[in-house]
Write a structure and sequence with these properties.
Elements: H1 12-15, H2 19-40, H3 42-51, H4 72-78, E1 96-101, E2 111-115, H5 116-132, E3 140-143, H6 155-162, E4 165-167, H7 174-184, E5 188-191, H8 193-205, E6 218-221, H9 230-240, E7 243-248, E8 258-259, E9 267-269, E10 274-279, E11 293-299, E12 310-319, E13 331-337, E14 342-344, E15 347-349, H10 351-360, E16 364-375, E17 378-387, H11 395-410, E18 416-421, E19 436-438
Parallel strand pairs: 3-4, 3-5, 5-6, 6-7, 16-19, 17-18
Antiparallel strand pairs: 1-2, 7-8, 8-9, 9-13, 10-11, 11-12, 12-13, 14-15, 16-17
């Protein structure tokens, strides 16, 4: 199928579908997938029966609220039970053509299986996101994501299906990646926000000006929240002279499930594939669109392993109001992980809020490390930063200014701000950076 490169939509009919029509389509797919899960996945039959619900209970979209939640623990507990893929899987193994795994950063890595149709629809969605941010067949694209079992690795196929010239970079050392960027002059790259920043810094130190010596016009970032933090996005854009677009994905579902458009007001989520709810993190009560809580996803078309009311652990909200770009699919705004949030003096603190302050400051590098700890039986936090070598201000004055700014933004001051020389904070990484160290021993439930 040939597409007019001047058309702003990959699939205009789908992307601009009126909400009523989109929700009608969602309801039809929801009824089918819940019935399929009940009939073919042992866990769902047992779970639905125990909860006293059945697929025929779904008459409208809100009826999904009658069904029980699942989460990462459910995936781990059912994986390997009865078969390698476990009791959540609804197809025989011979129908599975691809598996990825989670990183295992919060426990045992979980397998995410795909049928051939699952995988093809996954890649069509990736093509849609690439087209949405402006990728066209005349672009040269570097996919600088891990290919080893990572669900984001195959997303490069979506760019190839679009027609772009694709360079399968993977997790290359920065020197090699900079060689590729300078030699082949690609126009688009995908990596993590922290690595995009660090790669630009490394380029400058090697005498390469990303704005003048390289040809990157667009940077896709994912895996961390930085791309949706205005100050971080602007810092990367200023460094590279390129547009930055944030993507969001889950190993449990597929690569990028949501992506920014040119309006950069949240990330359009593929509502033809995912039904979104937001629930109270304590009670599980369903919240109204626009209210902040834990994002809960139900897959509408993934048959290898349907996810019915999957609690993602991500905190945010969904906006279903019209977007300036003309797309009708809702936009999610993710502000942090439930696992990363901590409470100080009754204030919910997200690392993304701290990052927003740090990235806006002049005279510091933008690198930071958060330590969460106990003192006098209460939760405290400290922030470590780096002062630029050419900053004449004293460490004490820099620390005081940052502390004041954090209090103004978050509502609670850090216990201390520690200032390091440029390059001394060990947070730089080829890909995701570790930003939080939790030293608490008490049980701080959210």
């Amino acid at each position: 199928m040939s597409r007019n490169i001047l058309n702003k939509y990959w699939n205009e009919e789908l992307e601009t579908m009126p909400r009523a029509e989109l929700e009608k389509k969602q309801l039809a797919d929801l009824k089918e997938i819940v019935q399929f899960a009940y009939d073919h996945a042992p866990y769902y039959k047992r779970s639905f029966d125990a909860a006293g619900v059945k697929p025929s209970d779904i008459k409208e979209l809100s009826d999904i609220q009658k069904f029980p939640f699942i989460d990462k623990k459910t995936e781990r507990d059912t994986q390997g039970v009865g078969s390698l893929l476990g009791e959540l899987v609804a197809v025989p193994e011979e129908d599975v053509v691809f598996v990825s795994t989670s990183t295992g950063s919060t426990g045992v890595p979980t397998i995410s299986p795909f049928t051939k149709q699952d995988f093809e629809e996954f890649q069509d969605t990736e093509s849609r996101w690439f087209w949405q941010i402006g990728m066209r067949p005349n672009d040269r694209y570097v996919h600088a994501l891990n290919f080893s079992l990572y669900v984001g690795g195959p997303d490069v196929i979506g760019a190839q299906n679009l027609g772009a010239l694709c360079i399968w970079g993977g997790t290359l050392p920065s020197e090699r990646l900079l060689f590729i960027l300078k030699t082949y002059q690609p126009t688009i790259i995908w990596t993590s926000p922290s690595y995009a920043w660090q790669l630009g810094e490394k380029a400058l130190k090697k005498g390469i000006d990303p704005k003048k010596d390289l040809n990157i016009k667009k940077i896709i970032v994912a895996g961390e929240l930085g791309g949706s933090i205005g100050a971080t996005r602007k810092a990367i854009e200023d460094l590279w002279g390129a547009e930055v677009y944030d993507f969001y994905g889950l190993s449990d579902i597929f690569g990028a499930c949501a992506a920014m458009c040119e309006a950069k007001d949240g990330l359009h989520i593929a509502e033809n594939h995912i039904l979104v709810e937001t629930v109270d993190i304590h009670t599980g009560e369903v919240l109204k669109p626009g209210e902040t809580g834990e994002l809960v996803f139900t897959t509408l078309r993934k048959h290898a392993r349907p996810l019915i009311r999957f609690r993602t652990g991500d905190i945010g909200w969904i906006d279903n109001t019209p977007c300036k770009c003309g797309r009708t699919h809702g936009r999610i705004h993710v502000i942090g992980r439930k696992d990363d949030m901590f409470i100080v003096s009754a204030v919910n603190v997200f690392p993304s809020d701290i990052e927003a302050v740090i990235r806006e400051f002049k005279g510091i590098t933008g690198e930071y490390l958060i330590r969460v700890f106990e003192k006098d039986f209460t939760c405290k936090y400290s922030v470590e930063i780096e002062k630029k070598a050419d900053n004449p201000a004293t460490d004490e004055s820099v620390a005081a200014e940052v502390s004041t700014a954090l209090k103004a933004r978050i509502g609670v001051k850090p216990y201390e701000v520690i200032v390091h020389p440029d390059g001394d904070l060990n947070t730089r990484s080829e890909h995701k950076s570790r930003r939080i160290i939790d030293e608490r021993k008490l049980n701080y439930n959210i």
